[in-house]
Amino acid sequence: MMVADIAYSEFLFTYNEIGKILKRSHSTLIKNTVSYSSDLRAMPELRVIRKKVLHNAHDYLQSIYYMYICD
User: Fold this and answer.
1) Average pLDDT over residues 18-36
2) Is there a contact between 2 and 53 (Cβ–Cβ < 8 Å)?
3) With 70 as the cut, is the pLDDT of residue 13 above it?
4) d(CA 24, CA 49)
């Protein structure tokens, strides 16, 4: 859920694109987004983990992002 949120909100991927990468349907990702939002409200420490995931995944997601732009 966290990687999908980062790809969607930080790198502007569509749910269809994220679904192809993560091998999930776009409807599953949309449903998980709602769950993730409520999880963030319930457990604020997830924001710290999200920052770490964003930092670790930044180069990878950026390379995929540019691959989609060039297509």
Assistant:
1) 91
2) yes
3) yes
4) 22
User: 38-55 pLDDT, tens per residue?
Assistant: 998 999 999 999 999 888
Residue 10, phi then psi, degrees to nearest 5? -95, -35
Q: CA dist 19 to 12, 13, 45, 46, Å? A: 13, 10, 26, 22
Residues in the chain: 71
> Where would I find the beta strands (DSSP E) of 4-68?
none
Domain residue limits, the chain? 2-70
Q: List CB contacts of 17: < 8 A, sequence separation 6 or more.
A: 7, 68
